[in-house]
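Re: G3I structure - here you go.
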Amino acid sequence: MSDARGGMDATKSRRPGPYLGAAVRIDQIEADARLAEAVLRDCASLTPEIDMKWDALQPGPGDWRTGPADGLVAFARRHGLEVRGHTLLWDQSTPAWAKARLERAPGDWKIVADYFQAVLGRYGDAVSEWDVVNEPIDSEAPDGLRATVFQKAYGPTYIERALHEARAHAPNARLVLNDYGFDYDNPVEHQRRAAFLRLLEQLKTSGAPLDGVGVQAHLDLSKGPLKREILAPFFTRIADLGLSIAITELDVKEDGRRGGVAERDRKVADHVQAYLDIALDQPSVTGLTTWGLSDRHSWLQKQPLHPSANPTGMNRGLPYDGALEPKPVYWTIQQAVSGAKGPSTLTSR
Ligand code: G3I
């Protein structure tokens, strides 16, 4: 099949292919040889699913736990893979002690500066792209910005400051804002797209060192069809700002989990196909990362089900099933990334 860069047949590429990557955990890779094989077969880029978040790296003020992140970086180095750094500032993964300090001393930037210096100093050479701020958008906030602990401590310019701080410690990395909820034709996602674009425009105008965006793409079959007339202009507006776009967390939440497995898998694959047909037409899309490889490890297994859903069994929204067997969506992704067309490439391994 493909080489380790995910290309099935480079000669058929529509352009120098976007990379393929996955979110992973080093403990899972080490515990499961089939997962490790899949990672090495399919991925050019790895994103730590959990281990580079602040609460994982520094659960207490002097308590650094870099083992798993170091392990993942070493694995990536050994195999020549890129690492996406996920993530420096995310309200949800900020440890309680840091939140308490930010609340006690709003305006004191030292805690962020020290953290960036430590993390970017340690992983600076190994990480090619950083999600500097994760999930800053809230469509319901008057200014479109989520009222995070950072927003409350520093005001809305915290994003710009974070980008400058990251640039000071990681001069060569690509600096990115990563967010979700941009995919469907509904009022909330319209507002989210508008708020995100406003933020990107402001950052570019102010000269912030922003290189790209991460579009998470947690797709959801219950949210209706994916529409080119909605998505394509969104990608174009970002590209027109001179920013690169990475699809950073692709997966699919099933609606009912009902019907036969073949039918469910076809629905998931068709949905991803529809998404990638639109997204990969935008030349500024540099890469595609799935949020995990196997359904067995998917965060979606922990999510509340849709009210009408079959409560048993797994969500089947990632390239491999729970037994690490590739599903139709695996081939959809391979074909989309390589540009290869047609059923002749749908041979099994
Ligand atoms: O490993 C501990 C376990 O020891 C403990 O008993 C258990 C009790 O809750 O928690 C376990 O850790 C959990 C970990 O997942 C592993 O399952 C954490 O509580 C839980 O918070 C963590 O969730 C992760 C979440 O981010 C928060 O870091 C998800 O796996 C991960 O998929 C999710 O990823 C996020 C992206 O970073 C940002 N975009 C959305 C995406 C999905 O929520």
